[in-house]
């Protein structure tokens, strides 16, 4: 029964990118935005949601593995989704606990994105994707990826991993 309820959430939940990163000017949504939007649906569908973190080391890098767990209060069925984010110890001006907290927030947001199908990208086989990503004739030099774009790309690749072995292979 949980899959039917999850499908309802996936078809209903809309969480726009209403926050703006003032440093690079892009719009984004936070884990808190997703949680605030999903709470009424959880109540209506008799579900509860928990988030938890595990710390793991792959190679010499520390990752936060966030798990979103959806519980059906009527039949006790469970659905989980995980996502990873790497701690950035090179981040200037952040304490170790802030670094871990930032990685936790990022991983939790992507676990929620995965659970509720909140996609940040367009499918490569859609007309809209090709229109958005069509080469611009006036643009001759490709802009380098921003730090946030690089992180997003890495997180997407990490999310595709289904085991620590795949994650280790990706790292190498």
Spans of at least 5 consecutive residues whose pLDDT stays below 50 are 122-126, 128-142
Average pLDDT figure: 81
Shape, per Cα inertia axes: globular
* Largest pleated sheet: 3 strands, antiparallel
Spell out the helices and strands N to C: HEEHEEEHHHH
Q: Give the distance, in angstroms, between the N- and C-terminal Cα atoms.
A: 40 Å
Q: What share of residues is helical? A: 40-55%
Q: Supply Rg.
A: 18 Å
Q: Work out the number of β strands.
A: 5
**What portion of residues belong to β-strands?**
15-25%
Supply the helix-strand structural class. Answer: alpha+beta
Distinct helical segment count: 6
Q: What order do the strands of the largest sheet run in, or round the barrel if closed?
A: 3-4-5
Question: What does the model show?
Answer:
This protein is about 45% helix and about 20% strand. It is an alpha+beta fold and about 170 residues long. The strands form two sheets. The chain has a three-stranded antiparallel β-sheet with strand order 3-4-5. About 10% of the residues have low confidence. Helix 2 packs across helix 3.
Secondary structure blueprint with pairings:
Elements: H1 2-12, E1 19-20, E2 27-28, H2 31-45, E3 47-58, E4 61-72, E5 78-86, H3 96-116, H4 127-133, H5 147-159, H6 164-171
Antiparallel strand pairs: 1-2, 3-4, 4-5
Helix pairs in contact: 2-3
